[in-house]
Amino acid sequence: MAVSPTELLDIARTVATEAGELVARRRREGVTVAATKSTSIDVVTLADRECEEFVKARLAQLRPEDGFYGEEGGDSTGTSGLTWIVDPIDGTVNYLYGIPQYAVSIAVVEGNPDPASWKQAVGVVNNPAADELYFASKGGGAFLLTGGKQQQLHVNEETDLAHALVATGFGYSSEVRAIQAQRLTHILPAVRDIRRAGAASLDLCAVAAGRLDGYFESGTKPWDHGAGSLIAREAGAVVGGLYGAAEGESMLLASNKYLFPEIEKLLIK
Ligand code: LIP
Question: Which of 16, 177, 175 is nearest to 89 (CA)?
Answer without folding.
Answer: 16
